[in-house]
Amino acid sequence: MRILYQVLLACALPLALFGQQQARVTGAKVTEAGIYKAQVVAANTNAAGVKLQGLNEFTLLKSTTNVPARIGIRFGFRYEILGTPTNAPIMLTIVAKHPPLKNPATGKTGTQDADQLHSSIGKTYTSNSLDEESDLVPGQWTFEVWCEGEKLCEQSFLVVRDENKEGSKTSGERGEVIR
User: Fold this and answer.
1) CATH assignment of 21-160, given 3.40.50.720, 2.40.160.20, 2.60.40.2390, 2.40.50.140?
2) What is the pTM of this model?
């Protein structure tokens, strides 16, 4: 009986370990990019002065990579993290490269920000919103998605001078994940 118990234990332990399949990320793909509207459900600023927001109702308004430098404009992209199992939790690093911007929290000017983000294998999104006059800097903005030291995907946008030049805020649009 004692030997049977040890054999069962020896067989059950590997099965228990296999039952907890570890997340395996194999890549990512951008599925849409443009100007969005969203509902902000949570907001804070990290120690580096990077705005972080949880969003709901992330809706594409215009498919484009040219973004007017206007307060209230939110631009970003939807992407899919490829791997197994679906919905497995993972940690991503989102890197934003942008023209020189002065961080209002630190007073320092920089061209890159990064933040870690709890995510999962499957469909997701990220975006940025131009909330302050100091955000309205024309030039190329590139967002990269990294996992465990490997770049999975990136999306670039060209922020251009606003042809309207009113600078009026679009209702319901506020800042988010990177910057």
Assistant:
1) 2.60.40.2390
2) 0.77
